[in-house]
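$ fold --in a.seq
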Amino acid sequence: MSRLDDSFDKNQTIVRARELRRSMSLPEGLLWQQLRTRPGGLKFRRQHPLGPYIADFFCPAARLVVEVDGESHRMGNRPKHDGVRDKWLEEQGLRVVRFAATDVLDDLESVLRAVTIACRA
């Protein structure tokens, strides 16, 4: 998920989301191939703008944001940035679940099962 500054430009966020849809990482692409089939009848959107942020995946019916975190999410100020973003999303009434990119690559079925369970929770 990426964030612009507090005075974000909605059009700029939409353009960035479109760019991200064209350049998804391998783990994001693999998860999207499963989510786009609407597991359990759940509809997901990919690289979906939410305020100043862009969610990797979003299930509107469950108000659930799904993030796939690569190595960069453990480096520098990214953990703090992710915490600020998650707090903002939760303040909007959304839930956030995160999966390591390696988990998606190593056990896609378990990640998909966890996503569908989180949607029903």
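$ fold --in b.seq
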Amino acid sequence: MQASHFWGRKAESVRFDEENVDCLCFTCHNYFEMNPHEYVEFKKKRLGEQRYKMLMVRAHTTQKRDDTKILLWLKDLVCPN
């Protein structure tokens, strides 16, 4: 299994966004890399049109990565209150 980021590493605003990543097998990951239009349809079906549009807006919002915010988010995932 591989983590496939819909919007690539350059889109720091969605780098750690759970809606931006899919767990895919090697074959599916390669298929979507070679057929990006199919990946778009997959994401729209999986997220729905509205959530897909919001992900696209977040991906195109210029934002520097906030390492402190990421560490707090990860800590909350591992040790929720």
